Amino acid sequence: MSSHNQPSAARIYDYDLGGSRNTRADRDASHRIREEIAPNGPFVARANRAFLGRAVRYCVNKGIGQFLDLGSGIPTVGNVHEIAQRLNPAARTVYVDNEPVAVSDTKRLLADEPNADIVGEDLRNPDAVLSAEPTRRLLDFDQPIGLLMVAALHYVDPEADPERVLRTYTDALPSGSCLVFSQITADNRAEEAQRVIDWFAENTATPVTMRSKAEITELLTACGWELIEPGLVYPPHWNPDPADPNELPAERSATWAGVARLDR
Ligand SMILES: C[S@@+](CC[C@H](N)C(=O)[O-])C[C@H]1O[C@@H](n2cnc3c(N)ncnc32)[C@H](O)[C@@H]1O
């Protein structure tokens, strides 16, 4: 949780994507990050968000009609339920976030939307998320579900036991479900990554944990997920769409992204 005087990950991300639901503290933070810490911040956000859109479309085209979006963020252009409903008007979506602005804006956006809702909860409490009323009302756990952990697991530090978190969600899902996953990494540009880690630890209530491609692969595999082609790649390289932003070399996105499938 955060106050408006302290920058928040959700609101900095909103600003980097061109949104308006951010405070002076978030805008100042975004500019400081770009100028002094990691010049590619907005590119990282845009490349990640574009990946999310392509991956959701991929899942719907594979027949998935319901989504659980963990760390969903402040509503922006192209929200999961909008992307999914464009291809399948009956698609259902449950968003989860613990940032107050993300929760209240999402509630407002969804006021007249019967097939989507938000759970204001910490994603590190999977039992609370899975038993929440909107989750039970909107998702059918006997049918494949698209589980989204997009730019979200890097807020789960080792003490919170990310494997326990992912495994608990995974165990609730039936075979044929998909995981849409991305997370920032220090695999290249390690010094810049360290500056990002230090900055988030000092300035926000949401410190970040970078993970290597090997660590992510191990985590997903341990929880029963099988990455589909092309595996874990930089977001711009995952089923690229020429319409999506790609103004810098893909490795500057400093993120590993992929879609995995659950086959039991
Ligand atoms: C960088 S944004 C990503 C938003 C969206 N998933 C996307 O990729 O476009 C990360 C989101 O995760 C949320 N978040 C961070 N830690 C969380 C936690 N422990 N529980 C729930 N949400 C969390 C933040 O509030 C923020 O909205």
Structure, briefly:
The chain has ten helices and seven strands. By secondary structure, the chain is an alpha/beta fold. Strands 3-2-1-4-5-7-6 form a seven-stranded mixed sheet, sandwiched between helices.
Q: Quickly give the CATH architecture.
A: 3-Layer(aba) Sandwich
> How many extended strands?
7
Heterogens: S-adenosylmethionine
| Sheet with most strands | 7 strands, mixed
Strand/helix succession: HHHEHEHEHHEHEHHEE
Q: Class, according to the CATH hierarchy?
A: Alpha Beta
> Would you tell me the overall average pLDDT?
95
In whole angstroms, the N-to-C terminal distance is 37 Å
Query: What low-confidence regions span 5 or more consecutive residues with pLDDT below 50?
Result: none
- Helicity, as a percent range: 40-55%
List the strand order in the largest sheet.
3-2-1-4-5-7-6
Rg estimate, integer Å:
17 Å
Judging from the principal axes of the Cα atoms, what is the shape? globular
Number of domains: 1
